Amino acid sequence: MNEILTQILTVGTLAVILAKTTPILLAAIGGGLTQVGNILNIGLEGLMLIGAFAAVAVGAVTNPFIGVLAALGGGVLLALVYAIASLVFKADYIVVGIGTNLLAVGITVLLLTVLYGNAGVTPGDVKAMLPRIDLGPLGGIPVVGPIFDHHTVLVWVALALVPVYWFVLYRTRYGMHLRAVGEDEGAAVAAGIRVFRVKFISIVVSGALCGLAGAQLAMASVGSFTAGMTSGRGFIVVAAVIFAAGRPLPTLVICLIFGAADGLADRLALGGVNSSLALLTPYVITIMALIVAALRVRSAIRARTRRGLAQMAA
Questions:
Q1: Which candidate, 264, 238, 234, places its Cα nearest to that of 251?
Q2: How far apart are CA 103 and CA 98, in angstroms?
Q3: Any idea where this protein resides (predicted)?
Q4: 260 pLDDT higher than 50
Q5: 188/179 Cα distance (integer angstroms)
């Protein structure tokens, strides 16, 4: 037991948690944008997966930063498919999200087979690793330095995007329109807001951020692509988005919790805990978060109903 606690309670664990949080946070900010606009995008898993593949495939033959751009582009392209199907052809968001996930799995397996002759994983010589940023003297600051030192640039991008996300939502014209569309689409149309444009932008930006999340997932520590390597993280992100209701600070907090669960699972496995039991930890927390979110939504609906009845009685 002491060995397990020693393995977990270290500064290195906090650094791992930050790294594990990054892809979840990037995708959650993207998913939060669509959630604020009243679009529950469950296709985040597929968007992350296509980004991970594009990052490794392109980054291996060029350089990692070109791979990051490719991941962003791959996420955007798949998001365009989602946007066209849901906004132009009026397909159900949930159904389109499921289709997006299945499409991403099929495309990545097909490309693995065609390009590398292996439907499971990229060859050993196909590698793309993002360089890590050395903070120099700042990295020597006790406790804090080692936590933030030697991370990829996408870790810093994810942290910087939290205040940017807040600013966009609450201090820009687009953010005001997005929130108006999410609260009452009919009233937004009556007010002259271009609902299609607002939702379209949110979906495309969501795809771009999920692509970056896939790049971090593939190129931060592994440097290769494995079929289905997102391993349900997209659904963990959906849980985070639902729980945080698209709000910036709660999104960061929830993503840190999920990142901690993922990081602790790795540390528990290294500490000798059954690996299957350790890997179950993030998903148990996801289920708990969804239950709490469902109870909160039910409570809000009941409160709204009571207020409506009271107004009618008055």
A1: 238
A2: 9
A3: Cell membrane
A4: yes
A5: 9
What is the DSSP code (8-state) at residue 77?
A: H
Angle 209-17-258 from CA coordinates, rounded to 5°: 65
pTM of the full structure: 0.89
CATH among 2.30.29, 2.60.40, 1.10.238, 1.10.3470 for 11-254 = 1.10.3470
CA distances from 180 to 42, 82, 203 (A): 22, 22, 16
CA distance readout (Å), 80 to 100, 233, 241: 11, 21, 21
Given the structure tokens 């205040």, which residue do they identify?
Answer: 163
How far apart (Å, rounded) are the C-alpha atoms in residues 56 and 127? 7
Render pLDDT for 29-56 as a digit per residue (tens, 0 to 9): 999 999 999 998 999 999 999 999 999 9
pLDDT for res 257: 86
Q: Each residue of 92-137: pLDDT tens digit? A: 998 999 999 999 999 999 999 999 998 889 998 899 999 999 988 8
pLDDT tens digit string along 133-151?
Answer: 998 888 888 878 888 888 9
Please state the domain extents for the chain. Answer: 11-254
**Contact (Cβ atoms closer than 8 angstroms) between residue 76 and residue 208:** yes
Average pLDDT over residues 205-234: 93
Q: Which amino acid is it at 34?
A: T
